[in-house]
Amino acid sequence: MTLVDEAKRVAAEFDYPTEDVQKGVKEFIRQMDEGLQKDGATMSQIPTYVTAVPNGTEKGLYMAVDLGGTNFRVCSVQLHGNSTFSLTQSKVAVPHELMVAKTSHELFSFLAKQIEAFLKTHHEEHYHSHIRRRKTMSREEGFRDEEIFNLGFTFSFPVQQNGINKGTLIRWTKGFDIADTVGQDVCALLQAEIDALRLPVKVAALVNDTVGTLMARSYTSPGKTGTLLGAIFGTGTNGAY
């Protein structure tokens, strides 16, 4: 067999006829329907509490964090109100020992400290003015809403969400395995560690990475047709619609 013949033979193994594509589509839709009807299906259909998409006119400064695998990202986003935005972000590798820590506290404390470091580096005046106000105001007075960063928490693991900023971990994936986190509210775990550091941050929304993708595209390309879905092809593969 010549080299060309061998190459053709290998290439033929990747042929995917139209009838096979249609079989795959039919089975995919069957699994989607099954996931909508019952828990524990092969393809989980988990509702998000984000009930609308942006239209590109929204303004404001917000924070977001993303725990999606081996890295943890922290960013701030300035929405300009004209479908454009400015983004500042940092990324840090999650130490393996924290991925398999004995307690949730070890991991979520690490995440909160990364948020603190980000604020000190990129929003120094906002951070220090908050510290000054905290020292001069009583707890009863509290802080105005505009002084607090609303934080979107992208948590790319199977979660049963029961509110816009509430969701319990169903199971870990991607090499994470912290037993005492399963069944707990991951937003509450992160907020507790943020509060322990007394940071001006409120966990305002819990979203899967696919939902975040859907939201981001909706903001930058509102258009007449709208954005129909978000999809992630990475360590895991999933979508939102």
From TrEMBL:
GO biological process: one example: glucose metabolic process
Pathway it works in: Carbohydrate degradation; glycolysis; D-glyceraldehyde 3-phosphate and glycerone phosphate from D-glucose: step 1/4
Entry annotated with the keyword Kinase: yes
GO MF: ATP binding; D-glucose binding; fructokinase activity; glucokinase activity
Top EC class, one word: transferase
GO cellular component: cytosol; mitochondrion
Domain spans labelled Hexokinase N-terminal: 7-219
Keywords from the UniProt entry: ATP-binding, Glycolysis, Kinase, Nucleotide-binding, Transferase
Keyword DNA-binding appears in the UniProt entry: no
EC number in record: 2.7.1.-
Pfam families for this protein: Hexokinase_1
Family: Belongs to the hexokinase family.
Full protein name: Phosphotransferase
Species in which this protein is naturally found: Cryomyces minteri
